[in-house]
Amino acid sequence: MSKVGAAIVLIAVVAALFGPLAARVDPAAQDLSKRLDGPSATHWFGLDELGRDIFSRVLAGARISLMVGIVVVSISSFIGTLLGSIAGYLGGAIDEGISRVIDILLAFPGLLLAIALVAVLGPSLTNVVLALSLIGWVGYARLVRGQVLRAREFEFVQAARAVGATIPRILTKHVIPTALPAVTVQATLGMGGAILAEAALSFLGLGVQPPTPSWGTMLNGGRTHLLDAPHLTIFPGLAIAFLVLGFNFLGDGLRDALDPVTRPRQ
Amino acid sequence: MLRFLARRVALTIPVLLGVATLVFSLIHLIPGDPAQAMLGESASPQDVAELRARLGLDRPLVEQYGRFLSGAARGDLGRSLRTNQPVTAAILERMPATFELAAAAMLVAVAFAIPLGIAAAVWRGTAVDHGATTLSLLGISIPNFWLGPLLAIIFSIELGWLPVSGRGTWAHLVLPAVSLGAALAAILARMTRATVLEELREQYITAARARGASKARAVVRHAFRNSLIPVITLIGLQFGAVLTGAVITETIFAWPGIGRLLIQSIGFRDYPLVQGCILLIAVTYVAMNLLTDLMYGLVDPRIRYE
Prior knowledge:
The complex is a heterodimer. In chain A, about 75% of the residues lie in helices and about 0% in strands. Chain A is mostly helical. By secondary structure, chain B is mostly helical. In chain B, about 80% of the residues lie in helices and about 0% in strands. The longest helix of chain B has about 35 residues, at about 85-120. The interface between A and B is large, with 44 and 47 residues.
């Protein structure tokens, strides 16, 4: 399953990197005379409400989706790992403070806080990344805190403390590496989550703004043409589901490979 | 048990206070002057000053915070900028629709997920298991803002079986409930599979089988019943995800609930109403989590003494 996931992700990365170069049609080029035309040999996925080639736009959208996923996951996992390890290792008032912030942010269901933040900050790609990162770090912090609480008692960590290693050194060299497998799994699944969240915000009109070709924005545009041109909805949605499925397969596979409990016996 | 109840409720109070603080801060995160942002660039300075005074934005921050908290505690969240209706009344008006949709979505999820999860566990490693696992992963990966329009294309536009939008009869509820419940069904099926598998390995299952219980009886009467606790917990914890999903589903199917109200209010920059909707959804989520925790403590005594 993880191989299928890796293949899907690889296809998406290649599409994002080289697709816009290889696409025969400019994703922004309009041909109003052919607006809403269905799939054909020249336009594989058909044309949208402004006569733009949907195939080229789906390829260009892969770039946005992957970029959002990578940036959000990088920022969230960095902040989450840092704060989670500090809370878990130092304990006391610092742990209490960080844990309460985590509790409060977790009291908001997933996307709701992102919707709220983008609503006040204004719809844009930057604000989507900011909002998703602001809520995304919490999951990593909670995960890493738990791992660090366990790692703190390991003999090699106590030995490092005994020989006088500084806290930053203990954290970066000894404690955080023990949490990295779990963080990798969470980050892989988080890529799918971030891509879905960006698409959802863009679908609601709160994310990437037209004419930039984001999959969510394309789906939003397709809503008014469900009756006469369902291809506007079908192809961008397929792209989202395909890529998110790829990351979920990969994340699941990685979890099974890294977790001795769920790893199948040889 | 009373001590457990008191401790759990006490732990919720700082979280609720934090949620309210965050919701209060939202209006202050608006770049520039919030009153100007709400009225638009063309608004006269007099109108902006009037709105600022009406919202109390001209008062010191501490006083604004105090007023917001005491108002929220009394259920007074101000008035809508667009309709001048009290925010609480506007939300209460829409609440039944959202809860109806959420309940129907959860019902759909449970009806699909539990048999699927049990079948996958019982026939582990077979085509049934692989099929169920792939179906679950598909359910998690397919966004409800795509599934909804897709279902509408098939069942409303092509087949003409169900209405495409609005609220009224049970037929209106089918497509929104299925599109909202699909992701929850996927998560639930995975959880049911995992917990039933775990229970099937227990000695009491071997004992039941040794006493002559059929495989079906051992699964349904013994393994499944014991695996229900984590499954019920998950249903409770997923309520928040369903409420957030409802924001999208209600927008797609023009379902007159809180989610649609939230998105419409964002469009009109009606921030008091935005704050109210966010606060209500978050508080409902916290309350559901608390309820789930309490139920968990009630059915599993080990939790109470931790």
